[in-house]
Every structure is written in C-alpha cells, then in structure tokens.
Amino acid sequence: MNSQLIIRNIGRFILLMLLQVLIFNNIYLGGYINPCIYVLFIAMLPTTTGRIPAMLIAFFTGLCVDVSSNLLGFHAFACTALAYVKGLWLDEIIIHDNEEGIEMPCIYTCPLQQYSIYLFLILFVFNIIYHTLLIFSLRDILDILLSALLSTIVTWILAMLYQSLLLRKTKFKNKA
After folding, report:
1. What is the DSSP letter of 32?
2. How far does Cα 122 stand from its chain's mean position?
C-alpha cells in the first residue's frame, strides 16, 4: 500500500468515527433505526489488505465505537465477522468481473449496481449480527430483522451520499 492510500484511509477512519460517535450514536429513530456509518470504513478497505489484517482493523474500529457508546463488544464482534466475509463477497460480486483490479471498493472504482449490492449485503450482515447481539432473544426475531433491515437501508443511503459528496471522482479517474 502506498503512503497516500494509508493517509486517505486514516482520514476516512477519523471522519467516519467522529460522525458515528458524535452524531449517529445519538440517533435511534422509532426504536428500530440506528445508522452505523462507520462500517463504510471496513467496506472500503483496500483490496490489498489481507484477511487477518482486515479483521484486526475491523476489530479495532468496532472497539472504538463500543468504548464510546459503553457497549460490551457488540460492534467489535460484528465488525470482525464482517471483515471475514467481506473478502469473499468482494471477490464474488465485484472483482470477478473486473480484469483491471480494484484498489479500493467505492462508487467510483466499481460498477454502481455491483457496488450497491455489495455495500447493501455488507451492511445487512453487520446489522443482523449487531442487532442479534443487542436484542439477544430469538423470541424477538421479527424485531431483529426489522431493525436490521431499516438500519441497513438508512445506513446504505447515508453511505452512498457520503461517497458521492465527499469522495472526488478525480482521485479514481483511471479506475472509473
């Protein structure tokens, strides 16, 4: 990984973490919707990041949110599990159709439809794991599914807006 990519990822981590801790941790709409925008950092990790380093980065990312919101490792566990499946889905959904390779998955480096599906699945898996741990009762399976689905939809919309507003297409002009 080059130093410019590392600096961009550190900046993205700080920005998404600040957004999550200062704004989105305080939003819980209707008892079902809790946007977790910081998961976008894990979804956008460079493809050159190995599975074990990605899982360690995801664990640390989730732990930062857990510490700031006084939770018992729910985010850390969900992020670590997410980093494990991320590589599999990235290969299946996006990379297998792209001969050029992708340095970092985002709306400018991947076909929009494939990236949208990839991001939605990543967010949904995270939310299923997170809300299952949070509610921790199979009696409330419908609440878990509803919370996960609504949180996924809202987070997906916010993530797509974040990328379209804050990422510059010129950075990715050779890949788009």
Report:
1. T
2. 6
State the CATH number of the domain containing residue 94: 1.10.1760
Radius of gyration of the chain (CA): 16
Please return the burial class of 46, using the count of CB atoms within 10 Å of its CB with bins 0-12, 13-18 and 19+.
Answer: middle
Of 131, 125, 121, 10, the closest CA to residue 71 belongs to 131
pLDDT at residue 145, as a whole number:
92
Over residues 28-43, the mean pLDDT reads 86
Domain count, the chain: 1
* Domain assignment of residue 45, given as a range: 3-172
Would you say residue 169 has pLDDT above 80? Answer: no
Per residue in 100-144, pLDDT (tens digit) is 556 778 888 887 888 898 899 999 999 999 999 988 877 889 989
pLDDT of residue 137: 79
101 φψ region: left (φ > 0), alpha (ψ -120 to 50), beta (else): left
The two structure tokens encoding residue 31: 């008892």
Specify whether the CB–CB gap between 101 and 157 falls below 8 A. no
Distance CA(74)–CA(97), nearest Å, equals 34
